[in-house]
Amino acid sequence: MAENNESMNANPPGILLIRSIRRKDWSLKTYKYVVLLITFIAYTSYHASRKPSSIVKSVLHPHPFLNETVTNPWPIGPLFVKREFLGSIDLGKSKKKGWEPFNGEDGTSKLGEIDVAFLACYSMGMYVAGHLGDSLDLRLFLATGMIGSGIFVGLFGMGYFWNRHAFWFYLVMQMVAGLFQATGWPSVVAVIGNWFGKRKRGLIMGIWNAHTSVGNISGSLMAAAVLEYGWGWSFIVPGAFIFLAGIMVYLLLPAYPEDVGFPCPNQPYVEDSSKTNDEEAQTVKENVAVNAHFNVPRVGSNRTSVGLCDACLIPGVIPFALCLFFSKLVAYTFLYWLPFYLSQTAIGGEYVSVKSAGNLSALFDVGGIVGGILAGHLSDKLDARATTAASFMYAAIPSMLLYRKYGGTSRLMNILLMMIAGLFVNGPYALITTAVSADLGTHSSLKGDSRALATVTAIIDGTGSMGAALGPLLTGFLSSKGWDAVFIMLVVGALSAGLLLSRLVLSELSEKFSKRLTCEQHNSEDSASQPLLRDQR
């Protein structure tokens, strides 16, 4: 009876309601689709709520000699909207004066400090959030983080309506929002790891990881769409989005297969441990799990989560974490500063509006979607996560340099080179934060204990988030010296990320060569033994 009560408490209220209406439960495959969809929407809302600060930078700290033309957002309105020199237009209360305290000479530095405050709290909170995610109920933990994020992102925007000009107000709102946002990534990766085995994990998570770019795009469009009504709305609307998504997670997300009567794919339901990570074997077990519905205990429910030090000792965690430090430094510099860069740089001899810069920057994330899927597929095909990630980081170097040099020649060239840069920059970032983290979180040394999933993900992404904080901060200072200095920083970051995986790349390549050599030796031995067999006959 106690087990049934515990199961009822673990079941999401929305699932219980749907089950009572249908009078039967979903299949395992349906639950997997539901988990993919809900976690996709959840992290889309996380990234959408981070995007407004990059969109409103040019309103808070406007160019002193440029005028904005307000139009409908792309794709309803045009992608490119020309900016005119001089003149004025009403952009709410700012009236092209910017917004104190960001409209002074040190405005870009203060905007950089706001970004780094958010990301510093995000990265520090990540380590705590990962450990808590492995200890607490993931559904409740994730929902709480999303609702809290929505509240404080919205409060940042309320500073516009409350006419707040104190720097500390915006700093505190971003810092608290960063702490709540830290709950997201370890939780969603742990949920996916709980439901899916290692077969085709790179491709599945590569497609699923499109939520990062979809969130950036939707956040840009939402923030740009309401910008003309006052920059505060650009925060309130995405804040409301993640708030509502948090309620959806609470109502509908089954964080563990055991909560709805299915065995965990990372823990053998039967005693044959050889089938632990085989999803095909998991499908066969479905009928057994259905018959034993509500009686499957949650794996690891009576165990403590893996500690940070123990998780760091898992082979590959530290190299990938350091690689992600530089990879996210590059990716988040584009995330936070690309719209500002586009609004301050002539394209084909013309400047575009702030809104158009936000719209245009979304195409970087379109390339990122392709890059994440391609990196995941190649790493599955080659069975070489480190080699794939390093190759993409090296390829990102010439793509960024080409974008800097030729991106301003024409609109078409800008779009093309931006999407190529997005492909190579976001590809390894997506691969490491999804498939690699899930692989290491279910490493063989853990003996099937998936309670390390959130902790390992937090170590890797938390370290990466330190780089994500450093990149925008340095950009705030370097951009005042010229954008060439910023791109030099990005090239050094991409090169460092690739080099940090060198040992793992060599290990993967040597393993592949040794397997190939062994296979060739077996083939030659087989071919040599055939004449002997014929002679014996």
From TrEMBL:
Pfam families assigned to the protein according to its UniProt record, in alphabetical order: MFS_1
Membrane topology designation: Multi-pass membrane protein
GO molecular function terms attached to this record: glucose 6-phosphate:phosphate antiporter activity
Record-annotated Major facilitator superfamily (MFS) profile domain positions: 38-510
InterPro entries: MFS (IPR011701), MFS_dom (IPR020846), MFS_trans_sf (IPR036259), SLC37A1_2 (IPR044740), Sugar_P_transporter (IPR000849)
Membrane-crossing residue ranges in chain numbering: 30-48, 116-133, 140-162, 168-196, 233-253, 312-337, 357-375, 382-403, 415-440, 486-506
Cellular compartments annotated: Membrane
Gene Ontology cellular component terms for the protein in this record: membrane
Keywords: Membrane, Sugar transport, Transmembrane, Transmembrane helix, Transport
GO biological process, alphabetically ordered: phosphate ion homeostasis
PANTHER family assigned to the protein according to its UniProt record, in alphabetical order: MAJOR FACILITATOR SUPERFAMILY TRANSPORTER 16, ISOFORM B, SUGAR PHOSPHATE EXCHANGER 3
Similarity comment text for this entry: Belongs to the major facilitator superfamily. Phosphate:H(+) symporter (TC 2.A.1.9) family. Belongs to the major facilitator superfamily. Organophosphate:Pi antiporter (OPA) (TC 2.A.1.4) family.
Protein name: Major facilitator superfamily (MFS) profile domain-containing protein
Source organism per UniProt: Solanum bulbocastanum
